[in-house]
Design a protein that fits this description.
By secondary structure, the protein is an all-alpha fold. It has a single domain, classed as Tetracycline Repressor, domain 2 (Orthogonal Bundle). It has ten helices and two strands; from the N terminus they run E-E-H-H-H-H-H-H-H-H-H-H. It has a two-stranded antiparallel ribbon with strand order 1-2. The radius of gyration is 22 Å and the shape is elongated. The N terminus is likely disordered.
Length: 211
C-alpha cells in the first residue's frame, strides 16, 4: 500500500487503490476472447486482471458472473457499433452491408485485441455443465442475426429488395459470412485477405439478391 508523510513527518497510509471495473472487464474480456470460457481459470483471471480475489468475487460473484459482465461490455461496444451501421437508412442497402462486413474485418484483425469475434471464440471448450452460458451466447448471436434480418425487411418495404426476398435466409447467409471471417481470423488470416473475401461477396451481391 502507498505510504506518504504528513507535514510533521509522520508516516500515514495512502488511500487504497480504487477498483476499476472497466479496466478489470477489459482484461477479463481479452482473456476469455483469447482462450475461451472453460480453459480460462479463475486464478488466471485474478492474475490477468491484477485484482484481489475478494474484490473480484465481491463485484462479480463468480467466474460466470464475470463472463456475463464481459459479454455485456463487448455488446456495448461492438454490438452498438453494428446496430449503428445497420440503422443507416439514408444509405443504399449494398453500402450498409459492405460497411458491416468491412467493419467486421477491422474488428477481427484489430492488433490490440484477440483475433476473431468474442461471441464465437468465447464458446471454445464449453462443457455440458456450461449449457446455460452457451444458450445465452446463442441468444445474443441470434439477436445479432435478427438485426440483420430486420434491416433487410425494412429495405424490402422501401423497394430495394424484391417483395419475395427470403430475408431470414439472406440474413443468415450474411451472418455466416461474418462468422466465417471470424474463424479465418482466428486461424491467422490477415486484414488484406479478409478484405478480399468482402470484395468477392460484394461483387456477387446483385446475383445474391436477385429473385
Amino acid at each position: 500500500m502507498d505510504m506518504s508523510k504528513n507535514l510533521k513527518g509522520t508516516i500515514v497510509r495512502g488511500r487504497p487503490k480504487k477498483f476499476d471495473r472497466d479496466s478489470v472487464l477489459e482484461k477479463a474480456m481479452s482473456l476469455f476472447w483469447r482462450f475461451g470460457y472453460e480453459p480460462t481459470s479463475m486464478s488466471e483471471l485474478i492474475e490477468g486482471t491484477g485484482t484481489k480475489p475478494s474484490s473480484l468475487y465481491a463485484e462479480f460473484g463468480s467466474k460466470e458472473g464475470l463472463f456475463c459482465a464481459a459479454i455485456e461490455k463487448y455488446l456495448a461496444t461492438y454490438g452498438q457499433a453494428r446496430d449503428a451501421i445497420l440503422e443507416q437508412d439514408e444509405l443504399p442497402l449494398p453500402q450498409v452491408i459492405e460497411q458491416l462486413l468491412r467493419a467486421s474485418v477491422e474488428w477481427f484483425t484489430d492488433a490490440e485485441m484477440p483475433p476473431g469475434c468474442f461471441m464465437v471464440a468465447a464458446t471454445f471448450g464449453m462443457s455440458a455443465a456450461d449449457d446455460a452460458l452457451f444458450q445465452q451466447l446463442s441468444q445474443q448471436r441470434n439477436s445479432a442475426e435478427k438485426k440483420v434480418v430486420e434491416c433487410l425487411e425494412c429495405r424490402v418495404g422501401k423497394g430495394e429488395l424484391p417483395d419475395n426476398t427470403n430475408c431470414v435466409l439472406l440474413g443468415k447467409y450474411i451472418v455466416n459470412v461474418i462468422q466465417g471471417m471470424s474463424v479465418q481470423a482466428r486461424n491467422g488470416a490477415n486484414r488484406d485477405e479478409l478484405s478480399g473475401l468482402v470484395d468477392i461477396f460484394m461483387s456477387q451481391w446483385a446475383g445474391i439478391t436477385a429473385v
